[in-house]
Amino acid sequence: MLRQGRSLEFCLFLLGLAIPAFEGCPSDCVCYPSPMTVSCQSHNFLTIPEGIPVDSERIFLQNNQISLLLRGHFSPSIVTLWIYSNNLTFIDPEAFRGFSRLEELDLGDNRHLRELAAETFQGLVHLHALHLYKCGLSTLPSGLFRGLQNLQYLYLQDNHLGYLQEDLFVDLVNLSHLFLHGNQLRSLQPNSFRGLVSLDRLLLHQNRLQSVPRLAFHDLRQLTLLFLFNNSLSELQGEALEPLAALEYLRLNGNPWSCDCRARSLWDWLRRFRGSSSSIPCEAPQHFHGQDLKELPADTFRGCSASESLHQTHGPRLPPRDHPPLLSSTEQREGAAGGHVIQSGQRPGSRKTLKNCTKSRNRSSRPASLGPWKSAEEAQDLKHQPNLGLLPKPKGKCPRAPVLPPSGVQQAAGGGRSSGDWATLTFHAAVLVWTLALVVIFR
Fold first, then answer.
1. How far is Cα 311 from Cα 240, in angstroms, rounded to an integer?
2. Which of 215, 231, 277, 359 could covalently link to 190 via disulfide, CB atoms 3.0 to 4.6 Å apart?
3. Strand, helix or coil at 105?
4. For residue range 111-146, what is the model confidence (pLDDT) as tens digits?
């Protein structure tokens, strides 16, 4: 009996050696390992809580009252940091120095965070999602996104941005989603989006845009979705849209369009566009008020000079084909009530090269409008993200095997019968023959 007790003690001793002691956890927080996670959300913390384990990879501090982020608050082992919906007013430019493992940083909904130093995000070479929505930002300093070659999702919507410097995004060669809607942008620069060679979606709606330069989108050859609705655009040169060879979805409604000679190049480009586009209701001249620019006849621009029209017409417009809706059913009803009809068709240009379908770019999946999913245990906190509506899913990413009807259906459609049908008929015929035979024998 004594020997068995000593054996049990020895086993427990070995088990203690195999499992390291669990480090402390900050008060009012919940911690769990593999990976080391610290969850401190919704506790009205005024400062970063003390006692966060140095090997923490995921730290959740959303929905508190934290006002400062200083160097030394976190260790470089961190991979995910959520500190949205706090009271941040200042971020030390070196707060994330050496955080080369950081992949997702959510600083959104900090409405008093009105400026950032240019070097704030330097060195975050593995960052793939950066959330800066609803932060009261009025300017973005040159070099703010320098070196972020792996960034894929950038959320800048619902700030007070009135200007984008040229080459601000030039290093973001892997960026696929750029959200700039709900700001105060009045114009774009020719090189505002230079370098965004992988961009798939660009949302610029609900700004104050009055003009778009001819070269504004010259690097966006992979863009499939462009939203420019609810701005102050009266004209847009068709030449500005020419580089968008992969474009599938375009929304231009909610602008005061002038459907005079200045609209000729846009009208001509739309005749050749095979993607899905919104209506473009004319504001002026008065005799075209309320009409859709796309539906105006060719003789509307017959008297326009060559300088006013950049392109010539290219034959009749082809009938559109079906596309997924740009909006949810509710938004579609609202749009129909306001005359904003979404039409669909084929997109121009050649199809993009298919991506490698055996390897995902992200560790997990998430609705395209929101970027990569946060962990399942924090899924309930996704409601903090602004509602972007139902954006269409990207097309042409991975081929899908066609779903064919059952073989019996195919044969029936061709006038023949399936093997199951023949088996049934044979069975019934055999029963009939045996019945007749029995009647003859016993008569």
1. 12
2. 215
3. strand
4. 999 999 999 999 999 999 999 999 999 999 999 999
